[in-house]
From TrEMBL:
<feature type="domain" description="ABC transporter">
    <location>
        <begin position="17"/>
        <end position="128"/>
    </location>
</feature>
<dbReference type="GO" id="GO:0015658">
    <property type="term" value="F:branched-chain amino acid transmembrane transporter activity"/>
</dbReference>
<dbReference type="GO" id="GO:0016887">
    <property type="term" value="F:ATP hydrolysis activity"/>
</dbReference>
<dbReference type="GO" id="GO:0015807">
    <property type="term" value="P:L-amino acid transport"/>
</dbReference>
<keyword id="KW-0813">Transport</keyword>
<dbReference type="Pfam" id="PF00005">
    <property type="entry name" value="ABC_tran"/>
</dbReference>
<dbReference type="InterPro" id="IPR027417">
    <property type="entry name" value="P-loop_NTPase"/>
</dbReference>
<protein>
    <submittedName>
        <fullName>Branched-chain amino acid ABC transporter ATP-binding protein</fullName>
    </submittedName>
</protein>
<dbReference type="GO" id="GO:0005524">
    <property type="term" value="F:ATP binding"/>
</dbReference>
<dbReference type="InterPro" id="IPR052156">
    <property type="entry name" value="BCAA_Transport_ATP-bd_LivF"/>
</dbReference>
<keyword id="KW-0547">Nucleotide-binding</keyword>
<keyword id="KW-0067">ATP-binding</keyword>
<dbReference type="InterPro" id="IPR003439">
    <property type="entry name" value="ABC_transporter-like_ATP-bd"/>
</dbReference>
<keyword id="KW-0029">Amino-acid transport</keyword>
<comment type="similarity">
    <text>Belongs to the ABC transporter superfamily.</text>
</comment>
Amino acid sequence: MLKVSSLNIYYGAVRALNNISIHVKEKEFVSLIGSNGAGKTSLLNGILNIVPPKSGEIVFQNKTITGLPTKKKVKMGISLVPEGRRVFPNMSVHENLEMGGYQKSSKIKNRQMEFVLDLFPILKERNKQLA
């Protein structure tokens, strides 16, 4: 589903990622764990082209997406929600979850919402609570 090969990312002259490669299969869950400055966010920003990689290849669903604009990657279903940033603090948990499916049809969005609520039952209890 997602394959990153030999990704290199720089911030000016500072190398943030050095030949990073990962392979995430369909329906596989992966966690990025590391200390501050280890490159977790840089990897995600590189995959989304928020910070364009200097070199390497990114393949998603058997299509090379290296260098594609972020907007096109989001339309393909790739997105990033920064942890702990309270991106939409005045919206309910339900409204925040809906934001993740803003480009989907109502039928697909409802099915995905049910899946997420089944996966994380506590969200059902906090559905109307402000995020």
